[in-house]
Fold:
Amino acid sequence: MTKQDTNQAVAVKRFWDAFKACLEENRVRPDHSEFYVKWAQTFVDFRPGKKLRDRSAEDIRSFLENLRNRPRIGEWHVQQAERSLKVLYENFLPGYVPVHVPASARSEPVVEKKQGRQSKHFRDRVIPGEVDRLFSPSLQALKTEIREGHNSLRTETAYVDCVRRHHIH
Structure:
């Protein structure tokens, strides 16, 4: 394997890890997020050679219809795949910037919005999953404490989402 192949494999793994974290940020249970990632990967394989950003709504409809026609695929599988692609296109891809792209090379600064107004300060775009990668032990400790306190999954999700939104750079 060449160095370029290795770098590409690392970039692909980072992409899917970040997508998995984005799914969890969007209320997909951690024990289900791997299945959602698999659906998105299956969608990538469905139209090889066509970049994700270049795919149309028709590509998605065609993929979902193809799933419906497969044996042993239930409607709940199709719904799960559809939700995976919804998060991919509506939440993940619009904000995803590969880790190796420096902030100075990005096309425009991102203005942080607060309560419907634009704030006066700029900050680098937060890459989906960045907080999870940087603070994984702390987030895991928080989740453990919440679970040991016998709190609901919604409570855990709310606390973890709050930490993700208010992380310190």
